[in-house]
Write a structure and sequence with these properties.
Blueprint: H1 14-44, H2 51-64, H3 67-88
Length: 89
């Protein structure tokens, strides 16, 4: 509970909600694609001739795991820019 005293909540209104929803949607699409690559890659490992393709799907899915924190950081930067531009006018 002590950490809640240190939290800062900013109300940026509808613009903040729109920005947040866009990044959440991108994150959901990214998560879905990661699951698809790993699922298909797993099935590919059941067939000897598809193992190399399955490995590439695992590599693609693993690389996409980097996108999730990047999207979060982009969202935070975007909201910060909107907040600063709204406060300077």
């Amino acid at each position: 509970m002590g950490s809640s005293k240190n939290q800062l909540n900013l109300d940026l209104g509808q613009e903040h909600i729109t920005i947040q929803r866009r990044y959440e949607a991108l994150g959901a699409v990214n998560d879905f694609l990661i699951a698809v690559w790993f699922l298909i890659g797993s099935f590919f490992f059941l067939n000897e001739s598809l193992i190399e393709s399955g490995t590439w799907l695992f590599i693609a899915g693993s690389a996409q795991l980097i996108i999730k924190p990047v999207l979060k950081l982009m969202s935070l930067v975007h909201v910060k820019k909107v907040f600063h531009s709204n406060n300077t006018h």
